[in-house]
Every structure is written in C-alpha cells, then in structure tokens.
Write the structure tokens for this entry.
Amino acid sequence: MGPREEGLSGGRGSHEAGGRCATRGYGTNATGARAPMARELGSRLPSPRSEREDPDPRRMGHDVAMSSIEACLAGIARVNERILAQPESERRKHIRERSVSVVVPDLATVFDMRLTLGGLVDVTHRPVDRSAPSPQVRVTVDSADLVELAEDRMDYARALLTRRVRVDASVGDLLRMRRLI
C-alpha cells in the first residue's frame, strides 16, 4: 500500500476513495486528519474574488472617512494639538514661522497654513489646480497616510524613508519638523 493509500485507509469512520468520510462529510488531508469538505461548509466559504465587494481597504467601512477632507482637517488639528502640548520653551527652540502646504494627491486638494509659535494657524484648503503663493515647506502625502501620521499609527521617519511622505523644505526646516512631529 503506497503513502497516498495509507492516508485514505484507517483513521476514524469508514472512508471512500478520495479521502471522504462516508458518514460525516469530512475529508482527510495528507496526514490522515479529518477536515470538513467544501460543500458541507456551504456559505462559510468566501465567495470567489469576482463576486466580492471591492477589496481596497480605503473604500470599505470607516476607511472611507479617512480619505475625506474633513478627516484630513481633523488630522491637521491633531498635529496642532501635539505641537501645542509641548512646552512653550521647546516650541521657541524648534519653531520658525513658516508657510506650509500639505498636498493630498488622492483628494486633489492642498491644505495651506502657517506654522507659528501658536501652532498651525490660518488652515484653508483649495483644489490642487488653483494657484497659490509658493510655500516655504511643502508636504505631499495621501489622505490615509496623513490621518495615520496624525494619530501616531505611522512613524514619521519611516514614512519619509519609504516615500509615503515627501517634504520639500530646507534642511533646517526638515530637522525642526522632525523634532515637532
């Protein structure tokens, strides 16, 4: 008797050819262990990929809200709270007043603001195709990544290294931003 035939004989219950248990609707795997057959699982099996909803996680459930302008504004507000939570003496060391633009390509939106000792002020948003004065610091990030950064679910340095966040600024401004965020 070969190894395949050994796996089919013996074990619990009587087995038909193909490893199916005649009494319970269980099949055997290569080790002879019993497992439910697909047709007995019925609706518990996932449907084929073509019949499922869109698998993009950004389009499912609560992740849709992360991509919205309101969620990005809330994320910017959280970053502002983090900046304001630092002692004023620390803010004085690291903050130089700068104009900042956060470009969110997946929303075709730009958030313009000023970074001051009082935090992020004058936050506005506009379509990406509407012109505006060139900012001193430009950050380019997708909306979901912006929210993840704001909620501390993504490491800022790793996001820079993997190019999920791109910052166009002077070296000094880059170092200051790293200390603030």
The helical segments are 3-8, 38-41, 63-66, 69-85, 88-94, 143-150, 156-161, 171-180. Strands lie at 15-16, 20-21, 26-28, 34-36, 98-104, 109-116, 119-127, 137-141, 165-168. The longest helix spans residues 69-85. Residues 110 and 130 are 9 Å apart (CA to CA).
